[in-house]
Amino acid sequence: MFNVKLYNKSNALQQTHAMKYLEEYKSIINWKMDSTILDIGCGDGSLTSKIFKEIIPNCKTMIGCDISEDMIRFANEHYASERGNFTTLNIEGELPDQLRERFHHVISFFALNWCLRQE
User: Fold this and answer.
1) Residue limits of the Methyltransferase domain (predicted)?
2) Rounded CA gap, 58 and 89, in Å?
3) Residue 31 in 3-state DSSP?
């Protein structure tokens, strides 16, 4: 079972770094107005929600994905909105048709290094 207190405690450093880098590079990342964004490896959804509200508030929709069903369940219970939601996805597999060619931007922090298949 997912322990959010333990996760948040161990994830604070990653969240701090991710927000720092997005803030630092937001002027050169050409975020499209009314864009759709996919966050790969969103974990409990807290960082995805924070990015959505603070860094790219003009984003139309943001979807967070993670391999952990417990994380996604928690994210949807605590951070989902009409413009942002979360879905279970193993990014090492085939991308589902409903997610193909749908996003203007894809972001990921501290997740891709866990993929065994890097092609």
Assistant:
1) 37-115
2) 25
3) coil
What is the C-alpha to C-alpha distance for residues 83 and 69, in angstroms, rounded to an integer? 21
CB 108 within 8 A of CB 85: no
Q: Pick from 79, 29, 23: which is nearest to 55 by CA?
A: 23
Nearest in space to 51 (alpha carbons), one of 95, 16, 78: 16
The SS3 assignment for 46 reads helix
Render pLDDT for 25-68 as a digit per residue (tens, 0 to 9).
Answer: 878 888 888 899 999 999 999 999 988 888 888 889 999 999 99
In Å, how far are 25, 26, 39, 87 from 18, measured between CA atoms?
11, 12, 12, 21
Q: What's the distance, Cα to Cα, between the start and end of the chain in Å?
A: 31
Token code pair at residue 81: 């909105």
Query: Of the candidates 111, 112, 102, which has an alpha carbon nearest to the alpha carbon of residue 47?
Result: 111
Helices (H), strands (E): how many in the chain? 3, 4
